[in-house]
Sequence to fold (59 residues):
Amino acid sequence: MSADVPLKTRLNYSLISDTEKKICEIRALIMHLCLFFAWFNLVKPHDALKIEIADCAAF
Fold:
């Protein structure tokens, strides 16, 4: 695939500054955390929150 892309449009990772590399890494980490929490919400809904609400309503 990279052979089809002109050399000028390819991203040269060595030309990116250290700050930009850190920003890219942080953005990727945030994206992965968001995906994990979205998946976790689908797999295991907030049962603990429902129990707390039920306990408060009993008083």
In short: Helices lie at 18-43, 47-58.
